[in-house]
Specification:
By secondary structure, the chain is mostly helical. Helix content is 81%, strand content 0%. It has four helices and no strands. Helix 1 runs parallel beside helix 4, helix 2 packs parallel to helix 4 and helix 3 packs antiparallel against helix 4. The N and C termini lie far apart (53 Å).
Amino acid sequence: MAVPPVAAVVGTVAALLSITSFAPQILKIWKEKDASSVSLRTYIVTVTGFACWIAYGLLIKAWPVIASNVACLLMSGAVLIMKWRFDQKT
């Protein structure tokens, strides 16, 4: 199925914004070595949601869904790992 060019652009922009939305949080946590303001439950749900989107993408064989959600999973996973890492130091 061919995707209209406008839909491809909107999808690409949406994916890039979703992926980069985690960057400010990652940079803040890394710089301050403090993740106390991050909700553990929120990021557990977020990471689980991205894992489900990846499974969905695999089931329907949609590489854009897979690729964008893998990137989001890595970014949100980084926040979750830093949350565990920096909370254990306190």
